Amino acid sequence: MSETSTLIGYGGRTIGREELALVPTPAATETHRPVPHHEIVQALIETLGFRHVGVVHDEYAVSPDGMKTFGVLDLATEMEGCRFSIGLRNSHDKSMRLAMTCGYRVFVCSNMAFAGDFTPVLAKHSKSFSLIDCISVGVDRMQRNFEPMRKQVETWQRSELTDVTAKVVIYEAFVEGRLEAPKHLARTVHDLYFEPKYEEFRPRTIWSLSNAFTSAFKELDPIPQFRATAKLGEFLEARFSLEEAWRCWPDRRSFYYSLCVKSCLEAAAPYPR
Questions:
Q1: Burial class (CB in 10 A: 0-12, 13-18, 19+), 216
Q2: 3-state helix, strand, coil in the chain (%, to 5)
Q3: For residue 165, what are the CA distances in angstroms to 116, 171, 185, 204, 206?
Q4: Beta-ladder partners of 114
Q5: Eight-state DSSP code of residue 94
Q6: Do 200 and 108 meet the contact criterion of CB atoms below 8 Å apart?
Q7: Containing H/E element for 75?
Q8: How far apart are the C-alpha atoms of 272 and 38, rounded to whole Å?
Q9: Is 25 helix (H, G, I), strand (E, B) or coil?
Q10: Residue 126 has pLDDT above 80, yes or no
Q11: For 201-242, what is each residue's pLDDT tens digit?
C-alpha cells in the first residue's frame, strides 16, 4: 500500500510525529519549495527546547492528499486549569501559508482553543526561505502572547453572563454567520452551556460559554476542528470587548457615533483623499 493510500485511511483521526514523517512532499519548482510537514514540526520542537519550553503532547491532521496539515502542540507551561498550546498549519499546494497561533488546552475536558486566527510567519515558500529563522520569529511572537492570554482566561472566568446574552452570542455565531463553523452545532453549544457535563463549567461565564463552543467542535473532523477553534477566540474577543466598551461608555449615543465614524474611516482608508 502506498503512502498516499495510507493517508486516505486516516480520515477523521489525528496522527503522531512518526506517521507525519511518512507524508510525501512534492518536488520543488523554480518558484516554490514545499517544506515537509514533519521538518517544520521538528524545527518547532527544537526551537522551543532552546527556550526551555517542553512539549508534553502533540497531534496532527493531514488532508487525504497529504497537501495540508494542521497540528497542536501542548506545552509544559501551565496556568490554572489549562495548559498553553501552539497551533500549527502548513500546505504544499499554496492553499495556505505556514502559520502558527497560541492557545490553551483545558484539563477537565481536554478541549483546545486558540486565542486568535492563525498568524502567518512567512510570505511564501520561496527558494530563499529559512525554516529555522521563520520558526524562531513565530515562537517569539507566541511567547509574547502567553501573558495576555493568561489574563484573558482569568477575566473570562470572572465575567458572568445573563442567559439572554449567552443565547444572543450563540445566535450571532451560527445564525448570523459571524463565526466560521457549521451551523448545525448551534444546538450542541446551547445544550453544553445550559446543561454542562462538568461542574467546573456550571457558572454562567464567558469561560463556560467558550468551553461549550470548543466541546461542540470536538464533533468535527480534526482539520475543521482546528479551523473553527482558531476563529472562535477572535470572535469572542471582538464580541465581548465591544460589549465592555458599551457598558463603560458614559454617553451611549456618543458610543454609537464613534463606531459610525470608525466604520466610515475604515471604509475610506483604501481610497486616495
A1: buried
A2: 50, 15, 35
A3: 22, 10, 18, 10, 10
A4: 103
A5: S
A6: yes
A7: strand 68-79
A8: 46
A9: coil
A10: no
A11: 999 999 999 999 999 999 998 888 988 998 998 899 899 985
Q: What is the mean pLDDT of residues 56-80?
A: 90
Q: Are 139 and 51 in contact, with CB atoms under 8 Å apart?
A: yes
High-pLDDT (> 90) share of the chain, %: 46
Pairing of strands 68-79, 112-114: unpaired
Query: All 3 cell numbers of residue 136?
Result: 524562531
Please state, in angstroms and rounded to a whole number, the distance separating the CA atoms of residues 192 and 241.
Answer: 23
Quote the distance between the C-alpha of residue 179 and its chain's center.
12
Better pLDDT: 5 or 185: 185
The answer to whether 86 and 104 have CB atoms below 8 angstroms apart is no
Read off the pLDDT band of 264 (50, 70, 90).
very low
Q: How far apart are CA 103 and CA 227, in angstroms?
A: 13
